[in-house]
Amino acid sequence: MDRVIAKKKWSTKKLLTIGGIVALAGLIGASIYFTSGKKRLNVDTQRITISEVKKSAFQETIPINGVVLPITTIYLDAQEGGRVEEKFVEDGTVMKKGQPILRLSNPDLALNLVNQETSVYNLLTQMQIASNNAQQNTVTKLNQMTDVENALKEAERVYNLNKKLYGQKVIGEQEFRQSENTYNYNLQKKKLTAEILRQDSVSTNQQIAQARQLYVGSQNALDLTRKKVGDLIVRAPVDGQLTSLDAELGQNKNKGERLGQIDVLSGFKVRADIDEHYLSRIYNELSGSFDFAGKSYKLRITKVYTQVTAGRFQVDMLFVGDVPKGIRRGQTLQIRLALSDETEAILLAKGGFYQQTGGNWIFKVSESGSTAYKVNISLGRQSPDYYEVLEGLKPGDKVVTSSYENYGDMQELVLKKE
């Protein structure tokens, strides 16, 4: 006897069909969800850096590199050009003031010295001859003056006698007039001889003064030439260490060419390079600090070199307080230069995010910690570790501070832990 078999309401085929439709609808819905509204990106939390915004003491500082230099450096330049004939010391020698370093030779300068000495000696000889001639001429003139005075006295005696005799009618008028003329002649001759003697004395004094002035000028020129010859031996101008000596035997050095330098060993300074962006904010007395051998030391700016080269300028800094033991010339220091006083501020840790955002926005983590979304921010001053937050964040907020290089134009990060 046949039996009626009941037809199944949900067949396997029908279930599979319904499941496929539901899955397709889910895919479509997911596609619509993820392609509409905000752009999202799944991010592994273990591959990003999440930092917490905090409020703490802040001081605007910038990192700069400084090189330790002697506190004073004296440069050695060739005062006169010449050939290096002898080196008395080597680079690195600790020198005493006046100690010879090297000797140059200059034949032209040596010949000039000989000619100058000869000229001075000739002038001296001529001056002595002129002085002797002047003395002899003066003696001759004085002898002439003596003869004139003697003749005048005799003429005056005869004139006075004849005048008396003529008054007594003892002699005639002719004889009296002759004695009178002789007296007047000798009187005028004495005046003329005296004037000649005076003019001769003035002329002689002028010639002697001119000769002496010429001799003194030549002697000064000789002294200068001797100094130039003496400068061919280069000596240490101060006590210190000879460094950067650039001179080899047989090498020709031009006048003014750098030969080396003397580093005064009484102390050290630090010369640092700073980006030109900060030029208007750098001035004397700004302070900085650095760590050395586990201890912190302070510096202060004492001189600013405003000339900009390759986008950077330089400053000199001196140690404040203790100088690190064992520090040496040429050593590089990592310095934190303070541009402001210490104040309370909201701080955001530095990170790679800044390269993509320019500090204008950041991904802020939601309270649930499952997502991070874009928020606009405003940053102010900075230190090597932190930015000062002016707007957009508050203490306790958590933000993604690692690089945003792979995020493109995403507006939200879905934070997952794999």
The residue ranges in which pLDDT falls below 50 over 5 or more consecutive positions are: none
Which sequence of SSEs, written as H and E, runs from N to C? HEEEEEEEHHEEEEEEEEEHEEEEEE
Distance between the termini: 65 Å
What is the global morphology?
A: rod-shaped
Largest sheet: 6 strands, mixed
Brief overview:
This protein has 418 residues and is α+β, with helices and mostly antiparallel strands. It has four helices and 22 strands. Helix 2 runs antiparallel to helix 3 (173-230).
Q: If you had to describe this structure to a student in words, what would you say it looks like?
A:
Helices cover 35% and strands 35% of the residues. A hairpin with a 5-residue loop joins strand 17 (361-365) and strand 18 (371-376). The protein starts with 11 loop residues before the first helix and ends with a strand. It has a six-stranded mixed beta sheet with strand order 1-22-18-17-21-2, with no helix packed on it. The chain has a six-stranded antiparallel beta barrel with strand order 4-11-14-13-12-15. A four-stranded antiparallel beta sheet has the order 3-16-20-19, with no helix packed on it. It is built from four helices and 22 strands. Helix 2 (107-167) packs antiparallel against helix 3. With 418 residues, the chain is α+β, with helices and mostly antiparallel strands.
List keywords for this structure.
single chain; 418 residues; alpha+beta; six-stranded mixed β-sheet; six-stranded antiparallel β-barrel; 35% helix; rod-shaped
